[in-house]
Amino acid sequence: MYAPASDHALLKRPRPRHTSQVRRLAIGLAVFCLLAFGLARSALGGAPTAYETVTVQPGDTVWSIAAEHYPQSDTRVKVGEIEHDNSLSGPSLHPGQRLKLPSS
Predict the structure, then answer these.
(1) What distance in Å separates the CA atoms of residue 74 and residue 52, rounded to the nearest whole number?
(2) Which has more confidence, 83 or 6?
(3) What is d(CA 61, CA 26) in angstroms, rounded to the nearest whole number?
């Protein structure tokens, strides 16, 4: 006697041969993206993990603070970092204002 095939058996198809290749390509692409992101972050500089806090004194400028605290660095770069880290819209400072200075 002939037993009819179940609906499940009719829907079951053989697995395409290229599935493992697609999986390897997807994993490779994911690894590439993670590496590229890590390299880009290193090139652009990650966020500093620690800050020193200073209180602005009369006559202080972002430039003078950067030059004093980072004598071995390019002052222009440090001024930009200080302005960015403190959300300053310009170089204006007020005595008593507290600024975060990147640790490096």
Answers:
(1) 18
(2) 83
(3) 51
Indicate if the pLDDT at residue 54 is higher than 80: yes
Q: Yes or no: say if 29 and 18 are a contact pair by the CB < 8 Å rule.
A: no
- Coil/strand/helix, residue 71: coil
Contacts 24+ apart (CB under 8 A), 39-42: none
Question: Looking at the predicted structure, is the pLDDT value of residue 11 above 90?
Answer: no
The count of other CB atoms within 10 Å of the CB of residue 66 is 22
Place of tokens 């493992």: 20
Q: Annotate 6-45 with three-state secondary structure.
A: CHHHHHCCCCCCCHHHHHHHHHHHHHHHHHHHHHHHHHHC
